[in-house]
Each structure stands twice: as structure tokens, then as C-alpha cells.
């Protein structure tokens, strides 16, 4: 019998990224560098393909973090509602918006609004 601790735990995100890389390579096999990436040389296409894999892995992590944020936000909202308070706390939302806009400018505000929309009202 194998001991669970001796095996590497493969996360859903890792499995998805690996599966996607295999599928992408098979689909790209017959295509030119330009068709695959928009680049005009194989060298540039290689750089782009490697960087795209990193972006896909980053996006998997970002999605996981967003899902984690949603779960933590639900804990806060549930505690507030159960205590007799309101679901939404606008002054805190202003702090979150300022945090993102200070770091990322106007698009940061839009990103924070989308995050709040995802997190609000799920309890
Ligand atoms: O910090 C809170 O009080 C929350 O309820 C969390 C949160 C958020 O997701 O950031 C969600 C809803 C509120 O309107 C404000 C902020």
C-alpha cells in the first residue's frame, strides 16, 4: 500500500495546465510560427510559447486566489448578517477600491469592482 504522504499531490490547477500544454502542442504541430503565435521567426515563436505557458500557469493561480477571496468574503458577510448587520459594507468597499487604484490606476478600480461583484452576495 502506498502512503499518501510519499506521493506528490497534483492539484487540479497543475493537472489542467499539463493537459492543456499537451493538447496545445499536438494542435500546433502542423502550424507555422506565425499561425501559432503571430511571430515571424521560429526563435520568436519559441519565446512566445514559453511565456504563454507561464501566463497560463499565472492565470490558474490568479483564478485560485479569486476563488479563495470569494470564500473569505463569504465568511465575513455571513458573520455580519448573522449578527444582524447588512450584507454590504460600503466604507470597506471604498478602501478596497482605493487599494487597487493606488496600485494599478484606473483599470485597478475596474478590477476591484469586478472582484467585489464576484464576492458580494454569495451567502
Ligand atoms: O470586508 C468586508 O466587510 C466584506 O464583507 C468583504 C467585502 C469584500 O469582498 O472585500 C465584501 C462585501 C462588502 O461590501 C465589503 C467588502
UniProtKB/TrEMBL annotation:
Q: Which GO terms describe its molecular function?
A: chorismate mutase activity
Q: What is this protein called?
A: Chorismate mutase
Residue stretches of biased makeup (Low complexity): 1-15
Q: Where is this region: Disordered?
A: 1-45
Q: Which organism is it from?
A: Streptomyces heilongjiangensis
Q: What is its EC number?
A: 5.4.99.5
**Which keywords does this chain's UniProt record carry?**
Isomerase
Query: What PROSITE patterns would the database entry show?
Result: CHORISMATE_MUT_2
- Spans of biased composition, class Basic and acidic residues? 32-43
Amino acid at each position: 500500500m502506498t502512503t499518501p504522504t510519499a506521493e506528490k499531490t497534483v492539484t487540479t490547477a497543475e493537472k489542467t495546465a499539463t493537459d492543456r500544454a499537451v493538447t496545445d502542442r499536438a494542435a500546433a504541430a502542423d502550424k507555422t510560427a506565425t499561425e501559432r503565435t503571430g511571430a515571424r521567426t521560429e526563435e520568436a515563436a519559441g519565446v512566445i510559447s514559453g511565456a504563454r505557458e507561464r501566463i497560463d500557469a499565472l492565470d490558474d493561480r490568479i483564478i485560485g486566489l479569486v476563488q479563495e477571496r470569494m470564500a473569505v468574503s463569504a465568511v465575513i458577510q455571513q458573520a455580519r448578517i448573522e449578527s444582524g448587520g447588512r450584507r454590504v459594507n460600503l466604507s470597506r468597499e471604498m478602501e478596497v477600491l482605493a487599494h487597487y487604484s493606488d496600485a494599478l490606476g484606473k483599470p485597478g478600480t475596474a478590477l476591484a469592482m469586478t472582484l467585489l461583484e464576484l464576492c458580494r452576495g454569495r451567502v
